[in-house]
Design brief:
Layout: H1 17-34, H2 38-45, H3 52-55, E1 88-92, H4 108-112, E2 118-122, E3 126-128, E4 134-135, E5 140-143, E6 149-152, E7 157-160, E8 163-168, E9 171-173, E10 181-186, E11 189-193, E12 201-204, E13 207-212, E14 215-217, E15 224-227, E16 231-236, E17 239-241, E18 243-245, E19 247-249, E20 262-266, E21 269-270, E22 274-276, E23 280-282, E24 285-289, E25 292-293, E26 301-304, E27 308-312, E28 315-317, E29 328-331, H5 336-339, E30 344-347, E31 350-352, H6 385-388
GO biological process, one term: pectin catabolic process
Catalytic activity: Eliminative cleavage of (1->4)-alpha-D-galacturonan to give oligosaccharides with 4-deoxy-alpha-D-galact-4-enuronosyl groups at their non-reducing ends
Domain Pectate lyase: 125-322
Length: 400
């Protein structure tokens, strides 16, 4: 029997009045539409929310015994990420990370470098202070449900040249660069690592990756970056706050291998204190769908090098500053003459407090097929997003 540690609630920064009022107005409209619709009322009263990933598993009071069912719940471009579904459970018992070359059994580093598929869980609350990057091997799930797990105050997670990774229910914050050190990446190999960027999660040359229900903040570089030919990625149900450059998708304007990148960004809450890159995209195809943005200090969605961006049924709540109303920002040496041909659209987005999205390129849906990965839900499903994203308070014997 696995030990269980009570999960304390993740800290949340208070939602500003303007956000609360805007969400309240949406809720009122939804309730008014539901009064004379018994079926809608019944659905509202159940544990299902309209979020297809959460509705797949969160109503199960036996989630702890059925952990691996989570692997069948992803949608979007990362939907085929199976993680460690076909392997054994590995229980992390020790938060220490004293030796990145010779990690001891029971530590997170020892778990993620193994060759075989593993579903990694934690037997108690812990703060893991990594001595260097946590370099993951393929077919791994890091599942924080049932414990309050933080990876913080050191280098964080690197997903490099691997596939089939699921990271769920982890608090990742205060990450810093590592490197100029030897680090093990499998039981049979270790090597010299140069200085890392200091990302919360760095995805490099990898595919079939799902990052779900994590809480991320205050890292040295990006919270989640995907570069160098990475693709088939879903970033969902995360709570992000207090950070500058949130997500970079694409290595550089010159790195054309990223033209095949496909990323779904869905049901995330972009919270307080975020500045830019939610995401910033290069080349590739990006489905930004059913997210809630509660302000930005520069811009929300940006890009260069002709990415296709399909923004659908998000809620964008601009700050009160008159200079911070535009959702979008484009970069390129030729200015508008260059980017006016890029396919960026806003389809059913809700713009509040003066927010606006500047579209470009084609309007026809056929132009966005490669940037379409799931059916966009009505904006009404986003009204409680700020309290159901991030690492969850899952307790054994109860729905999560």
């Amino acid at each position: 029997m696995f030990l269980h540690a009570h999960l304390s609630s993740s800290a949340r920064v208070g939602t500003p009045t303007r956000v609360s009022e805007a969400i309240g107005c949406i809720l009122l409209c939804v309730e008014n539409r539901s009064i004379n619709n018994p079926r809608k009322k019944l659905e509202t009263e159940s544990c299902r929310t309209g979020n297809p990933m959460d509705d797949c598993w969160r109503c199960d009071p036996n989630w702890e015994a059925n952990r691996k069912m989570l692997a069948d719940c992803s949608i979007g471009f990362g939907r085929n990420a199976v993680g460690g579904r076909d392997g054994e459970l590995y229980v992390v018992t020790d938060p220490e990370d004293d030796d990145p070359v010779n990690p001891i059994p029971g530590t997170l580093r020892h778990a993620v470098i193994q060759e075989e598929p593993l579903w990694i869980i934690f037997d108690h609350d812990m703060v893991i202070h990594l001595q260097d990057e946590l370099i993951m091997n393929s077919y791994k799930t890091i599942d924080g449900r049932g414990a309050n797990v933080h990876i913080a105050y050191g280098p964080c997670i690197t997903i490099q040249n691997v596939s089939n990774i699921i990271i769920h229910g982890i608090n990742i914050h205060d990450c810093i660069p590592g490197g100029n050190a030897m680090v093990r990446d499998s039981p049979y190999h270790y090597g010299w690592r140069t200085i890392s960027d200091g990302d919360g999660i760095s995805i490099f040359g990898s595919s079939h990756v799902w990052i779900d229900h994590c809480t991320l903040s205050n890292c040295y570089d990006g919270l989640i970056d995907a570069i160098n030919g990475s693709t088939s990625i879903t970033i969902s149900n995360n709570y992000m706050e207090h950070h500058n450059e949130v997500m970079l998708m694409g290595h550089s304007d010159e790195f054309i291998a990223d033209r095949n990148m496909q990323v779904t960004i869905a049901f995330n809450y972009f919270g307080e204190g975020l500045v830019q890159r939610m995401p910033r995209c290069r080349h590739g195809y990006f489905h930004v769908v059913n997210n809630l943005y509660s302000g930005w200090e520069m811009y929300a969605i940006g890009g260069s090098a002709n990415p296709t961006i399909n923004s659908q049924r998000n809620i964008f709540i601009a700050s009160d500053s008159d200079s911070l109303k535009e959702v979008t920002k484009r970069g390129g040496p030729s200015g508008e003459e260059e980017w006016k041909k890029w396919n960026w659209r806003s389809d059913g987005d809700m713009m509040l407090n003066g927010a606006f999205f500047k579209p470009s390129g084609e309007e026809a849906s056929v132009s966005y097929i490669r940037a379409s990965s799931m059916v966009a839900r009505p904006a009404s499903v986003l009204t409680t997003l700020n309290v159901s994203t991030g690492a969850l308070n899952c307790q054994i014997g109860y729905v999560c």
